[in-house]
Specification:
By secondary structure, this protein is an alpha+beta fold. The chain has four domains: 302 residues, ATPase, nucleotide binding domain (Nucleotidyltransferase, domain 5, 2-Layer Sandwich), CATH 3.30.420.40; 85 residues, ATPase, substrate binding domain, subdomain 4 (Actin, Chain A, domain 4, Alpha-Beta Complex); 102 residues, Sandwich (Substrate Binding Domain Of DNAk, Chain A, domain 1), CATH 2.60.34.10; 97 residues, Substrate Binding Domain Of Dnak, Chain:A, Domain 2. A hairpin with a 2-residue loop joins strand 14 and strand 15. The longest helix has 45 residues. It is globular. The N and C termini lie far apart (63 Å). Bound molecules: adenosine monophosphate.
Length: 615
């Protein structure tokens, strides 16, 4: 087996590492520098006017002057639907074109061609692979790649696809905070809770992990996908530009070349102020005045000035920390270790804020922008047997687990690739009035409809007190322990009555099974999606019919008889569509027709016609 490399595929920068053979008992993790000598490489892909592809620093450099043909931060688009909030936000903030592909995913257009986000990420991965190959002098075909802990199955899958496109067999996808903890050897301790504070170039993530006997579980994650070093650079830039304008009445914002130089100078000054108390900014010939005389931007920036300009940004990282602690149901005093990740955590004010918040001195031994890649390399070495690295007890769920819900839909409770042990709950309810029991059908698989997945168990929660449909709250909790044993509990929140079942280990499937299921899911994605939509629409239609029938009984005398007649007609049509199993388009039309009628009635009842007039 060849060497397995570890790659931190970051939003702004990526890093590649591997474990070199070392003396017994020692582990030698190497961060591999790129051809320009840098230990991290910007995750930026650009195309020049002549169609040449640039990856890394060269692409980052042309980002301002050739913005429409330069893709940065494509990680935010990985596995994402075009309609999602994250993508909309990204689309507004970048110059390259982001559009909706036929499957609903977000794609980009650069250099005159359309690309899926995995294809762009693959170019970055290819570059990281080239860096490793140049260092080793041999071909590299296997890798461990890290992803944020909150990445869902689609995002993890998209990352794997990117690896495959780059010619890499992705041996494992691991969570970034887990990798950081591995780099510090924290898995060797018996039990502890740690916080991983990750402030990178464009994103902030906080993760609370529990490590017990080498097994990692993510207790909570939080963060801000649009907060990072670039905002700090922007704060410095704004100050430089504003002062220049005061002194010379010239707005540098309009000059792209000047902006690019100021951006680079701002970032450089920020770096220097992490180790010095003041720094010189010197940009000669940044503009010319009305007499065509050259103007220079020359000034001193102090650390305290930088801190003043960025206090609010540092503060903004603390609210997610508070939320993560709350979600993990721990107190800050339970956290025994804090790990800093991301280049921005080199800033002393950031380190101080973290220390004040968690009450412990953060770990600083490993470079914050390399710690995730180092952990990935350790995991890679453990998988390939390189170096003296013990096998790490990390595992993930191979397939999604969930339950069957209305209309035979498979509702996922624990997605595929979730690190185990894990525990997740979801609330369900009854579908008919006075329903005395709820059947729970536990399944495993990747298909959208329950019938296409593997049935693991069935049980019933009985003794639910009479109540209208939709009122009872049934909390279904899935637990997977370190051995992969799944237990499912259904609890009636009102009465606390509960029923639990244990099901066979989830590892009953071979690699081939998983591969087959995944490829089947891929093949049937479209057809499954239609069936899922159909089932969902049918459920919605049932609910609409139910509420309409109730409303007709209750308010018939308040609404004009014609409207009532039209509504009754629409009810009849929709009912017939459901009973005859009509196709999606017909059902949707009938649904919308009835919805329109009920909205019109509601508007009359509430006299809301005017306020809704522009809808
Ligand atoms: P990452 O995405 O982890 O590579 O983080 C990159 C961010 O860290 C960029 O915004 C860098 O400007 C910032 N950064 C790197 N080194 C330093 C430093 N010495 N002081 C402050 N910020 C830094």
């Amino acid at each position: 087996m060849g060497r397995v490399i570890g790659i931190d595929l970051g939003t702004t920068n990526s890093c590649v590492a591997l474990v070199e053979p070392a003396a017994a008992g020692k582990v030698d993790v190497r961060i591999i520098p790129n051809t320009e000598g840098a230990r991290t490489t910007p995750s930026v892909v650009g195309f020049t006017a002549t169609g040449e592809r640039l990856v890394g620093q060269a692409a980052k450099r042309q980002a301002v002057t050739n913005a429409t043909n330069t893709v940065a931060a494509v990680k935010r688009l990985m596995g994402a639907k075009f309609a999602s909030e994250e993508v909309k936000r990204q689309g507004r903030s970048v110059a390259y074109r982001v559009f909706e592909a036929s499957n609903g995913d977000a794609w980009v257009t650069v250099g005159g061609r359309d690309y899926s986000p995995p294809e762009i990420s693959a170019m970055v991965l290819q570059r990281m692979r080239d860096i490793a190959e140049a260092y080793l002098g041999e071909s590299v075909t296997e890798a461990v790649i890290t992803v944020p802990a909150y990445f869902d199955d689609a995002q993890r899958q998209a990352t794997k696809d990117a690896g495959r496109i780059a010619g890499l067999d992705v041996k494992r996808i691991i969570n970034e905070p887990t990798a950081a903890a591995l780099a510090y050897g924290l898995e060797k301790k018996t039990t502890e809770r740690i916080a991983v504070y990750d402030l990178g170039g464009g994103t902030f993530d906080i993760s609370i992990l529990e490590i017990a006997n080498g097994v990692f579980s993510v207790k909570a994650t939080n963060g801000d996908t649009h907060l990072g070093g670039e905002d700090f650079d922007q704060a410095v830039m704004d100050k430089l530009i504003a002062d220049f304008e005061t002194n010379h009445q010239i707005d540098l914002r309009k000059d792209r070349m000047a902006l690019q130089r100021i951006r680079e100078a701002a970032e450089k000054a920020k770096h220097e102020l992490s180790s010095s108390l003041e720094t010189e900014i010197n940009l000669p010939f940044v503009a010319t005045n009305s007499k065509n005389e050259p103007l220079h931007l020359v000034r001193t920036l102090t650390r305290s000035e930088l801190e003043l300009l960025t206090t609010e940004l540092v503060e903004r990282t603390l609210e997610p920390c508070r939320k993560a602690i709350e979600d993990s149901k721990l107190a800050t005093t339970d956290i025994t270790n804090v790990i800093l990740v991301g280049g921005m955590t080199r800033m002393p004010a950031v380190q101080q804020a973290v220390k004040n918040f968690f009450g412990v001195d953060p770990h600083k031994g490993v470079n914050p922008d390399e710690v995730v890649a180092a952990g990935a390399a350790l995991q890679a070495a453990a998988l390939s047997g390189d170096g003296d690295v013990e096998v790490l007890l990390l595992d993930v769920t191979p397939l999604s687990l969930g339950v069957e819900t209305g209309g035979g839909v498979f509702t996922v409770v624990i997605p595929r690739n979730t690190t185990v042990p894990t525990e997740r709950s979801m609330e369900f309810t009854t579908s008919i009035d006075n329903q005395p029991f709820v059947p729970v059908h536990v399944l495993q698989g990747e298909r959208r409809m329950a019938a296409d997945n593997r049935s693991l168990a069935r049980f019933e929660l009985t003794g639910i007190p009479p109540a209208p449909r939709g009122v009872p709250k049934i909390l279904v909790t899935f637990k997977i322990d370190a051995n992969g044993v799944v237990s499912v509990e259904a609890r009636d929140v009102a009465t606390s009555r509960a029923q639990t079942i244990k099901v066979a280990p989830a590892s009953g499937l071979t690699q081939d099974d998983v591969a087959r299921l995944v490829s089947e899911a891929e093949r049937f994605k479209f057809a499954d999606e239609i069936r899922r939509e159909m089932a969902e629409l049918r459920n919605q239609a049932e609910t609409l019919l139910y509420t309409t029938e109730q409303a007709l009984e209750g308010y018939a005398n308040l609404v004009d008889p014609e409207a009532i007649e039209r509504t009754k007609e629409a009810v009849k049509t929709l009912r017939a569509m459901i009973d005859n199993q009509s196709d999606l388009a017909l059902l949707r039309d009938a649904y919308q027709k009835l919805e329109g009628e009920t909205f019109a009635i509601a508007e009359k009842l509430y006299g809301a016609e005017e306020s809704n007039a522009d809808n």
